[in-house]
Amino acid sequence: MRTEFEIDYHSRRGRSVAALATTALVAVAGAALVGGALTPAQAAEPTFEPWRDAADDHGITVGFALSPGHLSDPGYRAIAEREFSLVVAENAMKWDATEPTRGSFSFGQADQVAAFATANDADLYGHTLVWHSQLPGWVESLTAPADLRDAMYDHIDAVAGRYAGDVVAWDVVNELWNDDGTRRPSVFQRVLGDGYVADALRRARQADPSAKLCLNDYNTDGVNAKSTAMYDLVVSLKAQGAPIDCVGFQSHLIVGQVPSTYRQNLQRFADLGVDVRITELDIRTTVPASASALAQQARDYRTVVEACLAVARCDGVTVWGIDDGHSWVPGVFSGQGAALPWDAQYQAKPAYTAVAEALGAAVEGSPSPDPTPTTSPSPDPTGEPGTTCSVTWGVNAWNSGYTGSVTIRNTGGTPWTSWTLRATLPGGQSLQQGWSAQWAQSGSVLTATNAAWNGSVPPGGTVQVGYNAGHSGDTSAPSGVTVNGTTCG
Predict the structure, then answer these.
(1) DSSP 220-235
(2) Which of 240, 244, 374, 476 has the fewest CB atoms found within 10 Å of its own CB?
(3) What does the pLDDT look like over 383-427, one tens digit per residue?
(4) Where are the domains of the chain?
């Protein structure tokens, strides 16, 4: 999580790098074991540093939904251990799994999920305490408000209490809205009324004082009636003093249909003073998936990750599973599937590469830039614009900040083996974070120096970097742009 970045960065990165060679070999072996020969298209996807390490550079986590029964499959397990810094139980912590009979609790699989998180230095995310689905019949049959409230409290006490101090956040209430923004008529809504949400949050705070408490739903990804109902509820809960810390956006999406207001929607919740998270990301398409559909899917995954990076209070992104072979999608949406970044043989798809690139992950085996380059041209002493570089600067602003997207092009005739970008920020702008480069601000001067993996830029080549900044009203792009001391066009 962003607030813990400075504490956990070094230990996590050390673990992932140390395990890199072993897990990469196991992943390939796992693909062979399930009978999937590498096809040319699949083999073409490069291998990047683990997502978890690249995400740590931004102070966020990347998670996945774990079904512990799949851990016996070496391909599944290798990806799970290598890529993710957060783990959520796909089903093992839901009500029917933990309390099938009133007062009789079963935590076998849930404990396996918790143990996996601990063993792999990953955060544990709790899902879910109060939900209308996967609910035992005995809960559905309760009609007396006092009786149902007691059952809800007892369940929260037992489940959240068991993992108190280990879970970073809980989906306390899940899927409480209809798509039109009205309350879903669950047994909790029918018997207890609107107040059950605040009651559940307060009880969860008692059971696990250190966990963040979230509401979670689907089809709330863009600005619409359903997300606005959630927004208004968060405003109301905060006014009541109810403990609401975060909102989860499931993001079970369709290829080519990421809402245009996706980032705007995340930002408006963050502006309320709550954290946000993409909690159940998958992006489905008609199967068998075409090459064009997989390419669009990759662009969609990138859009979602970049939206999170653009919102300072976005804690991270969780994908709902690992591979297409274990996805819930085909069983629910006939003729649909191929929704995850790895295929059924655990081979990376373009979506894997898109996420890695959005996080600024280094390609494994990329050479480090020469610290004393001998072939780079000397800076043009005249500073004539456009002689060896051009820079395109895009600004995507909201009320208190903006995302700067920067494309740097080598327009000269000599390759760069390293580069440094400098520019002057308008008054009132301040650097918050950046990616794909080493960013710094001194006074009004913004500086970006290449990362280890993108210092080499051939003539005509480009490199793309980005950053988030705060502003006090002026959202114009920086001026006085230079690369390696030469003024750029």
Answers:
(1) -SSSSHHHHHHHHHHH
(2) 374
(3) 333 468 999 888 877 667 787 888 898 998 899 999 999 999 999
(4) 11-358, 389-487
DSSP state of 419: -
- Could you check whether the bond before residue 478 is cis, i.e. omega within 30 degrees of 0? no
Which residues does the annotation mark as catalytic? 280
List of residues 6+ apart from 476 with CB closer than 8 A: 395, 426
For residues 328 and 337, give the distance between their C-alpha atoms in angstroms, rounded to a whole number: 9
- Is residue 85 helix, strand or coil? coil
What are the DSSP E strand ranges found in 71-178? 86-89, 123-131, 167-174
pTM, rounded to two decimals: 0.70
Residue from 411, 171, 357, 367 nearest 279 by CA: 171
Checking phi first, is residue 484 left (phi over 0); if not, alpha (psi -120 to 50) or beta?
A: left
Tokens, residue 21: 């060679």
What is the number of other CB atoms lying within 10 angstroms of the CB of residue 116?
20
Say whether pLDDT at 12 is over 50: no
* Sequence-separated (6 or more) residues with CB below 8 Å from residue 208: 160, 161, 163, 164, 165, 167, 170
88, pLDDT greater than 80: yes
Neighbours of 101 (CB within 10 A): 9
Q: Which amino acid is at 414?
A: T
Higher pLDDT, 60 or 371: 60
Amino acid identity, position 55: A
Domain 389-487 fold: Immunoglobulin-like (2.60.40)
The whole-angstrom separation of Cα 232 and Cα 192 is 20
Max CA distance (Å), the chain: 83
Top-level CATH class of 11-358?
Answer: alpha beta
